[in-house]
Design brief:
By secondary structure, the chain is mainly α. The chain has 18 helices and five strands.
Length: about 450
């Protein structure tokens, strides 16, 4: 194509975009914020209308109106003609993102969960802005923050680093080496994600009656020992050693999770209550990884409900067992990723999404068998040691966990995650075999799908 032809095509494209912007300005429709917020070429409102224009940009994002959003973002980047117009836009955009964070807390969302949903939708730029909004919200609340929430903010690195009295948008843009337009657009994108979040149950409300168990010195020592075993399993290059380490870790987990004092417990007031936690599962292949969470939870006498829209599993169980699920999921996920990386070096097909999704499904299927065998063998030994008193206690605890899960999620349905790559499945089965109990055990034929409980 010649230079003149390219120029003519580019001019036609720009003309169509201008016409589209004008059409959006006059036909945005039936009382939307955009009907009143902007005209064809710039601000048609004074500085007092800036909140409306910011809301119009968020509305365009929410409705998937890319052209409308780009138009309003251009206007916001330029700012109203009044002195200090850009600063008014920056302050209003940041005020709205902080307000969105503040609204999310009472609706059941913790700081890590907010960051998780932003990361699933966008990238690191938007995540940094969401973390900064959390820091600003904590500073402006004026109320004492409970210890757990403060620990979550500290782990996220949430702190108000930008100079007081200056524009956050400008400071963020300078820090990232990005344009003001790009940074302002990212702020609006975070607002649009947080605006769409529904109310979710408070984990404290989901938990059953009874006291929460505080970790003792013995608990911490046992957890440290289990972490050390899993760390060795992740780092070793010898499959036999990895399987022995994970098997030993699961044995310790099962023994540690059984509440031996319950065998002599004569008072319901002393019993630990069922607890609920949310385990965040990252993309890619979050649904296949959720199956891995499910099988680990089942082996440790916990129950889970998968929320696919937000990428988290709500787990029900007793504190020790929930600790074990989180530890083992992290370790086995690391081992699966390492095995998949090794597979990719020798098998070009391993780079395909279908192969990788099938790999995680085969891996979870084999892990389920191995963990169940390890847990059942350990429980059988413990029941003998307790003169047959253990199994009734476990049956009672299982019933309590099931009841707590059913109360919180009365309307759940099985979810099937289908696989489409047989080679990926079998590669995952082999990796699951090497990561757990025995490299010599017979493997089963793959199922077409593996059901797990899912919220609807």
């Amino acid at each position: 194509m010649g230079k003149r032809n390219r120029q003519r095509r580019n001019e036609k494209r720009r003309k169509r975009e201008r016409q589209g912007r004008q059409r959006h300005a006059t036909e945005a429709g039936n009382g939307s914020r955009r009907d009143h917020a902007f005209g064809g070429d710039g601000f048609t409102v004074d500085a007092s209308g800036v909140p409306l224009v910011v809301a119009a940009a968020v509305e365009a994002l929410t409705e998937g109106d890319t052209l409308g959003f780009d138009h309003v973002l251009d206007m916001l980047t330029a700012g109203p003609p009044a002195p200090g117009g850009r600063r008014l836009v920056d302050d209003e955009a940041f005020r709205q993102v902080v307000a969105a964070v503040q609204r999310a807390g009472p609706r059941g969302w913790s700081p890590p969960e907010l960051i998780h949903v932003v990361r699933r939708r966008y990238g690191s730029r938007q995540v940094r802005i969401a973390v900064d909004a959390l820091a600003a919200a904590a500073t402006r609340s004026g109320a004492d923050i409970d210890i757990e929430r403060q620990e979550q903010l500290d782990e996220l690195g949430a702190r108000a680093w930008w100079p007081a009295g200056e524009s956050y948008v400008e400071a963020r843009a300078d820090r990232d080496g990005a344009s003001r337009r790009k940074t302002l657009g990212a702020v609006l994108e975070v607002i649009s994600v947080l605006h769409r979040l529904p109310k979710i149950p408070d984990l404290r409300e989901l938990s059953g009656p009874g006291p929460s168990r505080s970790r003792s010195h013995d608990d911490e020592r046992m957890l440290a020992k289990i972490r050390a075993l899993l760390a060795k399993a992740e780092s070793t290059t010898f499959p036999d050693e990895a399987e022995a380490l994970v098997a030993k870790a699961q044995e310790l987990m099962t023994r540690h999770a059984v509440e031996i004092p319950d065998l002599d417990d004569g008072s319901d007031d002393r019993r630990e209550g069922v607890r609920a936690r949310r385990l965040l599962v990252d993309d890619p292949y979050a649904d296949a990884k959720a199956v891995l969470v499910h099988v680990i939870a089942s082996a440790n006498r916990c129950r889970g409900v998968w929320s696919s829209d937000f990428g988290f599993m709500t787990l029900f169980g007793f504190d020790r067992a929930l600790d074990m699920v989180e530890l083992l999921f992290t370790s086995l996920l690391v081992q699966a990723s390492q095995a998949l990386t090794r597979e990719g070096r020798s098998e070009p097909a391993a780079r395909r999404r279908a192969f990788r999704r099938s790999f995680f499904m085969g891996y979870a299927n084999r892990i389920a068998t191995r963990l169940d065998e390890a847990a059942q063998a350990t429980v059988a030994d413990l029941d003998v040691e307790s003169d047959g008193r253990l199994l009734p206690v476990l049956a009672r605890r299982d019933a309590e966990v099931d009841a707590a899960c059913a109360r919180a999620f009365p309307d759940t349905a099985p979810m099937s995650v289908r696989t489409s790559d047989e080679r990926g499945w079998w590669a995952g089965v082999v990796a699951g075999e090497l990561a757990s109990l025995s490299v010599h055990a017979e493997v089963d034929e793959p199922d077409a799908s593996t059901p797990i409980r899912s919220s609807v």
